[in-house]
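Box 3.1 A note on notation
Throughout this textbook, protein chains are presented in two layers. The first layer is the amino acid sequence; the second is a token string describing backbone geometry. Keep the layers aligned when reading.
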Amino acid sequence: MTKYDEYESPLALRYASSEIKKIFSPRERASTWRKLWLWLAEAEKNLGLTQITDKAIEAIRSNLIVTDEAFQVIAAEERIRRHDVMSAVFALEKDAPDAAGIIHIGATSCYVRPHSNSFHSVFPLIPDRGFNHLILPKLAKVIHNLSQFAIKFKELPTLGFTHYQAAQPISLGRRAAQWAQDLVMDLDDIEYVRAGLKFRGAQGTTGTQASFLEIFHGDTSKIDRLNEILCEKAGFKACYDISTQTYSRKVDLRIANALSAFGASAIRIATDIRHLAHDKILDEPHEATQTGSSAMSYKMNPMRSERICSLGRKLSNISANFSDTFSNQWLERTLDDSAIRRIDIPEMFLLTDALLILLDDVTHGLVVFPAMIRSQIEQEIPFIATENIIMKLVHQGVSRQEAHERIRVLSLETVHAIKMEGGKNDMIARIKKDEFFKPVWDELDCLLDPKLFIGRSAEIVERYVGPDGPVTGKLEKYRDYISSTATATLSV
């Protein structure tokens, strides 16, 4: 049997990066448990537990990385014990016999589980390869891509759409700036929940620290110092003030909500790109050898944006699972949180990572078709200009309501000719034939410049994503990553 004979997750196999997959790998998880046990033993020894020797500490330190052989021991023991943590303790004692009997003193399984198979896995517990070095910088780079695009096209008029019907033009750059703004909100939210993350620490079986009171003979100051040491080693500022057998699953939900919201933003942006690709206004990048259809060889499908929508749909809805898990925890804890978190937490981060890879690729390589943009605007600008025509007539004393009705009637005639006869938009020609509009005939041609209708689009873009705008300031701490990192490439 080979790997082709068993199911593998397409999310891991096709879409996510090697870096994020390694973080959630079995070896990383099991080795993190050993690191946590080392820290606990070191801290307990420093605080006076004489049964923990230097030799025991060194034995654990020398076996932090779980080997393939150790995994086989763990698997065999778990089939007997039906308890993953105790199986891992047994395997470590076999690898480090000098530490036998002092591993996991005073702790519960949720000393190691929450800090390895959870959001903590991508925070300070694994320095330099966690959230700060994967999710947040990648998101910042996508925002940077859109900001550069917005500046480049800040003055290029393009048709606006409301109700997916032609509306007043905006600039193409202004549209990209509104995409960037949604992602900046996501960056704010993710940074916020990340900054609020704390350590569970050594809290005992129901969060009362009773077992540690026994170990330290009632000396509460040593328990406090124990958790201070653990936080220092793990890279957290503090422990949660209240824990039960686990840290509150509200923590999971808060971060899930932030990442799910990013999934919704990704869908929103990619859906716009798909619509614009249909109209041949702009398109995502395509390789020269890329094939759109096995039958229709001329096809150039927006497969990247479609994939973003597909993966984003999964991510944007996954927070419901975390809400259910949190709300269904009974009293100090029930185990029905375990299996689903083993699946959903890694998948949530793999989905986020996969979407950021796609968005970096797409936003860096967007292709614009100015001639098609002009053609689309020219088809609609006679209708759009009628609002200004009405205002010109009002300035000359004509009734606004009467002018509005005359425009409405001519518009219906024009639309009929376009839709039923395949004609062009001749609205201006019709106005020039109607004596009612004679007072503004000489000004009509001057009212058809698309730039007259984009308002302050260029200024809005410059103020938001320009050198002195808030986005530039927001991205400053990610500047080294943005400037030194190549555009993401897709594996498939």
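Residues 204 and 210 are 6 Å apart (CA to CA). Confidence is low (pLDDT under 50) at residues 118-129.
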